[in-house]
Specification:
Blueprint (H helix, E strand, L loop, with lengths): L2 H24 L5 E2 L2 E2 H26 L4 H30 L10 H15 L6 E3 L3 H18 L4 H16 L3 E3 L12 H17 L3 H21 L1
Antiparallel strand pairs: 1-2, 3-4
Helix pairs in contact: 1-2, 1-3, 2-3, 3-4, 3-5, 4-6, 5-6, 5-8, 7-8
Amino acid sequence: MSIKSLIPNAVTSLNLLSGCVAIIFAWHAGEQYCGLSGQVWAYIMIGAAALFDFCDGATARLLHAYSEIGKQLDSLSDLVSFGVAPAMLMINVMQLYSDSPLAYGALIVPLCGALRLAKFNIDESQTTEFRGLPIPANALFLIGFCGWISRYGYPGTIPSLIIIVLISLSMVCNLRMFSLKFQNFSFTDNFRRYVIILAAIAFIIGFGLAGLAWAVVLYLMLSAADSLRSKR
């Protein structure tokens, strides 16, 4: 095995490590570290994991270093960084406002995430489109939801849990969702992708971090509209 083939896997491992650190900070969400709360550091580390998740695929394409091990390692890393870490963050953020044991219902996130990734790994059709919400998008929604709670207030444990369950189930539904990866920069070919990017920027300007959640909701709505048009 050449060193070149190990580089993408090393980047994927950084995704995994970022997710592990995010979990540690999530359990100290209300404490301060270097002027930032553990909650914010968890956001940062999940964001770093997303960056590494993007870079490992780009690195593999650039070096022509694809491998089955890399594919499996990527899914395992994504489960930790975008499934377990956001779930731990949600549990601890909810417990900042309420000591209800219902907060642990957020564990449905990694359960649905694991099923989502397992289905993805054996489904050869999910190349230009997906079935169900991708797990990184789910993580972005939950970060946005945490941002919404911080900015606008806690809606209550049961309403929060309902939202978490619904977004988690969206990962394992059969809704066809278009890929957000650009194959080229053509406006016609990528119209929906540009809409999502511009909307996300507008949502973040208008709602702060909570805008991420609205961007994911828009992604779901556009995908649902596409699915309805294709059925007609």
